[in-house]
Amino acid sequence: MFKADSYKPLSDSDDVLEYQYDAYRYVWKEADELRKSGALLEIGRKIKCPVIVIHGDYDPHPAEGVYKPLSTIIRNFRFIGLEKCGHYPWREKQASEIFYKVLNQETAITLR
């Protein structure tokens, strides 16, 4: 999945992570039901803190599927797109440096 969700990963090593499919299936089923019913967006309306989304242009999850719904319900919402970047910006050869730069800048601003 990592290779499919990446633009150009920092390494081609096959990291081994414990994957708990039953837990994923349970959580995803609940999240999917919340999405379909509109309840997830209703929960999102309660968010009071700033929300900054950093999203890769090569991410298999379409940016508009994140931007459109969240930008309409969260008052302090910003979207930052990264070029040549997949789902894991901190692990991308061409995006990790800018990802960390943006992350540092945005968290420094938010924490003031």
Task: Provide a short characterization of the protein structure.
It is built from four helices and two strands; from the N terminus they run H-H-E-H-E-H. It is mostly helical and 112 residues long. It is globular, with a radius of gyration of 16 Å.
Task: Kindly describe this structure.
Strands 1-2 form a two-stranded parallel sheet. The chain is mainly alpha-helical. Helix 3 links the parallel strand 1 (51-56) and strand 2 (77-82). The radius of gyration is 16 Å and the shape is globular. It has a single domain (21-111), classed as Alpha/Beta hydrolase fold, catalytic domain (Rossmann fold, 3-Layer(aba) Sandwich). The chain has four helices and two strands, in the order H-H-E-H-E-H.
Notable traits:
Rossmann fold, single chain, mainly alpha, two-stranded parallel sheet, 2 strands, 112 residues
Rounded to an integer in angstroms, the radius of gyration calculated over CA atoms is 16 Å
User: What is the annotated CATH architecture?
Assistant: 3-Layer(aba) Sandwich
Uncertain spans: none
Tell me the name of the CATH homologous superfamily: Alpha/Beta hydrolase fold, catalytic domain
